[in-house]
Amino acid sequence: MEKRSHTWKYFSVCETDESKAQCSICKTIISHGGSNTKSYSTSALNNHLKNKHPDEYESITAVMRALLIAYYMCVLVNSFVSKLFEFEPYSDEY
Ligand SMILES: [Zn+2]
């Protein structure tokens, strides 16, 4: 997961220490792994939401599930449409 994950809806990066994030619900400061933006991880934040704010966690996973389903629908429609246009009208049969 990268920084723009839905998890960040409930957290903001600590201004004095970028390796820490603050929960916007209970104001707890959580260390989320790396010391720079490239090694950010949302797993610690996800765990916090899961344990302390199950309702919010559920709303995030619901969004992710919906996005995943939408993605697979797109893949399915794409492969269906490309099959429709697979015939070759200019073959050298005659
Ligand atoms: Zn919290």
Description of the molecule:
- The chain is mainly α and 94 residues long.
- It has one domain (6-84).
- The chain has helices at residues 43-52, 54-84, and strands at residues 11-13, 20-23, 29-31.
- Helix 1 (43-52) packs across helix 2.
- The site of zinc ion has 7 residues, from helix 1.
Q: DSSP strand (E) fraction?
A: 5-15%
- Class from secondary-structure proportions: mainly alpha
Report the biggest beta sheet as strand number plus sense, adding barrel if it closes.
Answer: 3 strands, antiparallel
Note the overall shape. Answer: elongated
Q: Please work out how many helical segments DSSP would assign.
A: 2
Instruction: Name the average pLDDT.
Output: 83
Rg result:
22 Å
Overall strand count: 3
* Low-pLDDT sequence parts: none
Identify the strand order in the major beta sheet: 1-2-3
* Helical amount: 40-55%
**How many domains would you count in the coordinates?**
1
Order of helices and strands: EEEHH
Bound molecules: zinc ion
Distance between the ends: 55 Å
